[in-house]
Amino acid sequence: MTQRVALVTGAMGGLGTAICQELAKAGHKVVAAYHPQFDNKDEWVKEMEAAGFKDFIPVAGDVSDIASVQAMVAEAEAKAGQIDILVNNAGITRDKMFAKMEKDQWDAVIATNLTSLFNVTKQCSAKMAERGWGRIINISSVNGVKGQAGQTNYSAAKAGVIGFTKALAQELAAKGVTVNAIAPGYVATKMVMAIKPEILQTIVDSVPMKRLAKPEEIGFACAFLSSDLSGFTTGATLNINGGLYYQ
Length: 247
Fold this sequence. Notes:
This protein is an alpha/beta fold. The protein has helices at residues 14-25, 41-50, 66-80, 103-131, 142-146, 152-172, 190-193, 197-206, 215-225; strands at residues 5-8, 29-34, 57-60, 85-88, 134-139, 177-184, 237-240. It has one domain: Rossmann fold (3-Layer(aba) Sandwich).
């Protein structure tokens, strides 16, 4: 199998970690992008090495700032080579009912969860098209598909991710580059598992499968969409939510 280079943003969070691991298992060289203010980078790298993932290449960049992204991608290319696979996974929440939401809470989520797709993809997509092969995977959310009270900013951004995916897929379809989205439901990351047990149980009860997704189930979907055999799949949104919502 040809080893390809995958760049994953938000790589050191719970979902990002699983995505990195599954791409590595599929044989890809993984560049793990993280925010410059993330304090646990060295700890994360050691944890990955202990788990058998010794070749991750960490690079820092603020996905909401295009100049920072340009420097980050340049570093990634210098250390790993051309970017063949891009997973736009970085995301934040600033939840608040709309009546009480502040402008900075709106702006932060739109910048990190949606504008970041422009900033990062802009550095990679044209080069993929020139080479005639590429995979772009954008992480949306079930709440971008169905909406969620208290998350107008997040839901708007994640819905925008799906629109961005569909439009760019049409632009790149004839150039050997696929663009797809994954809309996960509730995933059993460390952050989610730290929710109060009674609230967590309410979430689980709302899912028809009566469980949360395993992070590796989302990571495996990324590995599939990064493969040669996914080459006829583009512009799609893969809903992985245990039956919580059907588009």
